[in-house]
Design goal:
Blueprint lengths: L17 E3 L5 E3 L19 H12 L11 H7 L1
Helix pairs in contact: 1-2
Length: 78
């Protein structure tokens, strides 16, 4: 797992969060996390590929996804 961290300052390629207003319009969410807000109940930033590796290791009791796959390939093998 190469793209997983518990620090927002180390996170790469983070999606921009949006919220829907009462007028049914999408707006950029004003609230963003920082390093001080990362904790056990929501303190991880990761990618689909890293999540697939974590899931495969836990379900299969060991790694089964080869390194170097892109997100789509890794998720399809999980």
């Amino acid at each position: 797992m190469n793209d997983t961290t518990a620090y927002m300052s180390e996170a790469k390629h983070v999606a921009t969060p949006y919220e829907m207003t009462r007028e049914a319009k999408m707006e950029v969410l004003r609230f963003t996390k920082n390093d001080q807000m990362m904790h056990a109940a929501g303190g991880i930033v990761t990618t689909p590929a890293d999540l697939a590796k974590w899931l495969a290791a836990n379900v299969n009791r060991g790694p089964r996804i080869p390194a170097g796959l892109d997100d789509v390939e890794a998720v399809s093998l999980a």
